[in-house]
Amino acid sequence: MNVVTIEVLDAMNATAATVEPDVDEFELAGVTPVASTHIAAPMVAESKANFECTITHILPIGEGSMGGHLAVGEAVAIHVAGELLNGTRIDQASLHAVGRHVGNWYSNPTDLFEIDRPS
Predict the structure, then answer these.
(1) pLDDT tens, position by position, 35-49
(2) What's the predicted TM-score (pTM) here?
(3) Smallest Cα–Cα separation from 9: which of 110, 85, 99, 113?
(4) What is the domain partition of the chain in residue ranges?
(5) Does residue 7 come out as left (phi exceeding 0), alpha (psi in the -120 to 50 range) or beta?
């Protein structure tokens, strides 16, 4: 899984096009494939953070035209650009991750806030 950030948002959207199976979506989106270390699928080099995942379960959800499947996976490797790391934490403000909602709706990271957890 490649974390979508503001910098690769247009490339991510380009891969949503309905294309023939032989179309190289990396080329279509103008991004660079880079070999993963633990899985066969390549990562997006331009992504600031990547998760290499294996599927552990595929669960049916709902029925009929409103049904689908939920894929549950395990992250077997995580890659994060060094400039985003603050010790063992990722600097969320610098990551610029984009949130996916429903349909064509997304959110940007310009309104980040933090809430302390109760002790």
Answers:
(1) 999 999 999 999 999
(2) 0.82
(3) 99
(4) 6-48+77-111
(5) alpha
